[in-house]
Records
---
Amino acid sequence: MLRPPRRSGFTLIEVMVALALGAIVLVTAHRIASGVLDGVRRAEDTQTYLDRDMNGRRVLVEAFGSLDVGPENGGFTGRSDRVEFATWERTASGWLVPTRRTLALRGDTLMLQGDARLDLRTSVTSLDFDYLLDPGANASWVREWISPVSAPIAVRVRVASRTSVDTLLFLVGPRG
């Protein structure tokens, strides 16, 4: 029995199956790569947000910790929606200089205003301040503190966003 000679090569069906498998592999690889890149972008955005938040907290701890109370510096004015005070801030050359600061909500941004504006947090929906009168178990908080010669023991700040409410507590340095 004689067989017809076989031709070398692939059939049309084999080529189509190979192309379909290759396309599936490429689509899957693209989805995996896109997911990894999106995850990296989200991680970088989260890291940037956390860096800004922690740097803002550090600035506020230093500002409240080195508060300078006295009539020559404008005293301490604390309201339920903002606080104004004088503090000693370190310059780029390392010197400490007195600076008048206002911590308040402008639009949806928590900012520390002075010689320069420092945006501490964005997407803020509300901001509330309380001021500690006396230390101890029966401590009392007030909604306002206005004094040219003294400051509260601590300042409590409640920062609300769409997803959470953070309560920050800052101990005040010298009380005047």
---
Amino acid sequence: MKALTMILLVILGITQYTLWVSHSGVREYFSLKHQIELQQQKNLEYSLKNEALSTEVQHLQQDKSAIESHARSDLGMIKQDETFYQVIPSKANKI
């Protein structure tokens, strides 16, 4: 009877070790759970960025003046026979 009890205690000890300490135990579970939460946050951010870009693409496809506005403001383009003047403010001498 004592031998059976010892065997069961050894088996219980091994299973507890596996559960709490080993690579596939509870620590690994919580680590993976945390990584999943972080990835879900990143996925949400990327989804929002994709949605904004999709809206911008649709706007550019539907409104031709939006293309011109984008070209002028973001790319610095000008029309043919148009003169572009850039005014650079001077820095005042500070004492």
---
Amino acid sequence: MNTRIKDIAKLAEVSIATVSLVLNDKPGVGKETRERVLKLARELHYEKPGTSTKQKHNGQVVSPPTGIIQFLKIASHGHTVNRDHTVFIADYIDGIVHGAKAHNYKLEVSSFSGTPIEEILSTIRTDPNLRGAVVLGTELSRDDVIAVHSLDIPVVFLDTFIDFLPFDFIDMNNQDSVYRAIEHFITKGHREIGMVRSSVQTRNFQLRYTGFLQTMSSLERPLQGEYIFDCDSTFEGAYNDMGQIIQSGTKLPSALFCTNDIMAFGVMKAIREAGYHIPNDISIIGFDDLPTSALMDPPLTSIAVSKWEIGNMAVTRLANRMAHPSMPAVKIVVGGTLIERESVKEIPG
């Protein structure tokens, strides 16, 4: 038998008029009463008269959303999750939105900047309708990841990768991608190869530095410590730090791999202002292939990773985790592609 308004009113110990106000999202009902009525309506599978459990989308019958999932965008310090990376994160969200639609979930996006992790978790725990979460782990520490995973809902982390934790991670393949960048330098005849690494240590940045060291060893190239430079991961920070490095009289190599495109943009500006020409004097490769890379002077060679694919895969993994809570954790890495432009010079043999 279909649930009626008077059934809910009787169980909630309120009037039929009160239930009608709540179910039609009208004002005039206190918060506690509203929540009690909505909870009963969900538990009793109440449907408004004239509605159906099926809806039409693009002319086809589809089921209503089966639950709510959240994308948690967390900026702990803001050196990497900031306005410079808005497009980067938007690509993740596009993939997540597609995945949510494919798996019939309603998606909510929550952003936190500088908020203590416990406060974030307290906020999430107050939502009784939340079934799972995809979490941007870019700026999360190992302890932060462990704390977020303690939520009473399934969680998948993207844009980070932490060894030995039995959690679900979807990330880019940093080390393989760095190999492609360094191999490209070598193919173009470069012998002096350096790296601009980030002074802000996120997990992905650490993996790129590790990948640089491993690649140089694998390709039997001498690792010259004086060609490894530490710069801030913001545009202004990288510009200022590289400017100071050049002013100190430090010799630069013929090729520099930058930890990400934002840093590469700042480094390029500092190098040009110091009188160097790119790529005739110094060749540069970035990482992320942000849209601005193609508009730089010269256009920046960079590593492209499908953030859309990572976001979409994260939702698929979350759906599997919700359906099978006891399944083993997985760590998935998505490979990158070298996008060759004009910032790398070929040196004749």
